[in-house]
Write the structure tokens for this entry.
Amino acid sequence: MNARDIDMLRGSLWDKIILFALPLALTGVMQQLLNAADVVTLGKFVGKNAMAAVGNNISMVGLIVSLLMGLSLGANVVIAQNIGAKRIDRAHLAVSTAFVLASVAGIFFCVVGETLVAPIFYLLEVPELVVDMAETYLRIFLLGLPAMSLYNFQAAIFRSKGDTRTPLIALAIASGVNIVLNLLFVLEFDWGIAGVAAATVIANIVSAIILFRELLNVDGVIKLNLNALIVDRDELFEIVRIGLPAGVQGMVFSLSNLLIQAAINSLGADAMAASAAAFTIEINVFCVVNGFGQAATTFVGQNYGAGNLQRCKRVTWLSMGLSAAFMQTLCLVILFFAEEILSLFNRDPEVIRLGVIRLWYIVAPELINVLMEGLSGALRGYGISLTPAVITLICVCGVRVTWIFTAFRNIPTYATLMAVYPISWLITTIILIAAYFYHVKHLKPARA
């Protein structure tokens, strides 16, 4: 094994889950730093309208990125199961197939995204004050989708064999590039919001290139051979079967967030800026939860491929327990220093006040997300991806749409709107718990 690989099939679990999940959580934090650097630079040096313009794009960007990340998660599970079952030839085919799929998907969503920018902005009723800046940022950002797609799929390939540190190093370098270019393009070249978007695109390209070179040079099962790139139909089917529902599940959150963003837009630029700043903070908590959720996916995937169901169950509960411990610590720090952290983005008192409201409604009940992500992650490791996606679609979208057109319409305040997050999480998690126990009781052997 490579020095960065983790043996998921033998030995203790808790320490290996931490070694896997924390670099993955930090990778998510680094990805958010790319966004945070944009928001901070614009908030400090351009103004809160530019900051609101970027915040307005968060949900739309999340829609596409969620689908790409879901598809890449399918590659993670398929390769991990092949490794656990010692199907080395199939693992090689899955790596090749995932790389081709990443390239095609990135280009496809770039083209589709550019086509839909104007209609989406019209539907969201983006205020005229920020619409031009928001469109400029999004159109430039979308140009980096092929690189972002390659990064996510390549990172998933590394994670399938237990290496979460290589993707972290690549993204750390890219984040540094992004911060430097943000300051250069905004302060020296005076490119404003276009410069911030261009810096993000370049950073995405840097991270993708680093992992690409690593895949070409690494030894072992995940080595990429450009002279033997093929798309295997069976592996493609499995990647899409597992990854597409996972992507749809992420998209459901983003779609519901688009509706919430439209409601936020109706409350004015202060609410938009506050949401942009608070989201940049709260998403880091989710990165911790998501890191342990993906640890459950990969560890369960390998052990399910190896036929060790008891170890799969231990992984599920250990990953959620560890996630809760790390997440709660981070939440306490954020809530205690909420005003001070928000002031790093913008010192407007109203922006800070609204940002604090959002943090309390979203960060405080984050423990619900631990259960939701942990159980969803474990089910995906077993190859069961459609169930959590359907539950999320019905519960999250249904609750949030109903809330916006009932409770928020009757009491159109920022606090009323934010309350929809914990309520929708709770209902989804209750149903997901029942689904998890049902599927685990009726598990079938992993594919031969």
Notes: The chain has one domain: 14-441.
